[in-house]
Design goal:
The complex is a heterodimer of chains A (110) and B (114).
Chain A (H helix, E strand, L loop, with lengths): L2 E5 L2 E5 L4 E8 L3 E9 L6 E6 L5 E4 L2 E5 L3 E6 L8 E9 L6 E2 L3 E6 L1
Chain B lengths: L4 E3 L2 E4 L5 E6 L6 E8 L3 E9 L2 E5 L6 E5 L5 E5 L8 E8 L9 E2 L3 E5 L1
Parallel strand pairs in B: 2-11
Antiparallel strand pairs in B: 1-3, 3-8, 4-5, 4-9, 5-6, 7-8, 9-10, 9-11
Classes of the chains: A mainly beta (110), B mainly beta (114).
Chain lengths: 110, 114
C-alpha cells in the first residue's frame, strides 16, 4: 500500500524566512506526486504535479522538487497569505486513488 | 471557487441516524470522488464514480454507500452513525476516469455526530 509521510507537522515562520517542507513516499510505480494547499475550513486546492525524479515546478513563492524517494516544497520569502496546510499525495501505477500525507501546517507571521 | 458544490455545509445529528451528503461536480467533469478528513486520519479516500459507475473503492464502511446520478451529481449516504463518523467529508471531481491527480475539491460537509 502507498505510504506518504510529511514533515514537519507544523512550521512557524517569520515573514521573509525561507524554508522547506518534506514529503517522503513509498509507492509501487510512481505515476505522479501532487502538492495541494488547504486553507482552514476549505477543500484542498491543487498546486503542482511532478512525474519523475529531477523535475521541478514553480508558482510564485513555491517551488516543488522530486527525487526517487521524496519531494520538497520550498517556500521562498513567505508572506502571511502563504499560511495554510500543505498536503502531499501520490498516485501509483495500479491506483485509481490518491494517497495523501497528513500535511504540514505553515504559519507565517508578519 | 473550484466549481464543485457540496451541501449541506454543516450537519449535526445523533448516533444511529442516517444522513445524505450531496455533491455537484464541476461542469464537464465525469468523475466524482469522496474523501473523509478527520483530525487523526487525514484525507482518506472512500469511493470514486465515473459517469455513473463505481470505479474504485477505498476504506469505505459498509454503513456508507454512494451513487452518481445521470446528471452526474453524487450522493454519499451514511447510516447507523457513530461518534467516530464525525469528520469533514469532501467531494472532488475530475474530467477523466483514471485520476491524473489534479482534483477539484468542494468546500466539504462537516458532520458532527452527538
Amino acid at each position: 500500500e502507498d505510504q506518504v509521510t510529511q514533515s514537519p507537522e507544523a512550521l512557524r515562520l517569520q515573514e521573509g524566512e525561507s524554508s522547506s517542507l518534506n514529503c517522503s513516499y513509498t509507492v509501487s510505480g510512481l505515476r505522479g506526486l501532487f502538492w495541494y494547499r488547504q486553507d482552514p475550513g476549505k477543500g484542498p486546492e491543487f498546486l503542482f504535479t511532478l512525474y519523475s525524479a529531477g523535475e521541478e515546478k514553480e508558482k510564485e513563492r513555491l517551488k516543488a522538487t522530486l527525487t526517487k524517494k521524496e519531494s520538497f516544497l520550498h517556500i521562498t520569502a513567505p508572506k502571511p497569505e502563504d499560511s495554510a496546510t500543505y498536503l502531499c499525495a501520490v498516485l501509483g501505477s495500479n491506483d485509481y486513488k490518491l494517497s495523501f500525507g497528513a500535511g504540514t501546517t505553515v504559519t507565517v507571521r508578519a | 471557487d473550484s466549481g464543485v458544490t457540496q451541501t449541506p455545509k454543516h450537519l449535526i445529528t445523533a448516533t444511529g441516524q442516517r444522513v445524505t451528503l450531496r455533491c455537484s461536480p464541476r461542469s464537464g467533469d465525469l468523475s466524482v470522488y469522496w474523501y473523509q478528513q478527520s483530525l487523526d486520519q487525514g484525507l482518506q479516500f472512500l469511493i470514486q464514480y465515473y459517469n455513473g459507475e463505481e470505479r474504485a473503492k477505498g476504506n469505505i464502511l459498509e454503513r456508507f454507500s454512494a451513487q452518481q446520478f445521470p446528471d452526474l451529481h453524487s450522493e454519499l449516504n451514511l447510516s447507523s452513525l457513530e461518534l467516530g463518523d464525525s469528520a469533514l467529508y469532501f467531494c472532488a471531481s475530475s474530467i477523466q476516469d483514471t485520476s491524473t491527480g489534479e482534483l477539484f475539491f468542494g468546500e466539504g460537509s462537516r458532520l458532527t455526530v452527538l
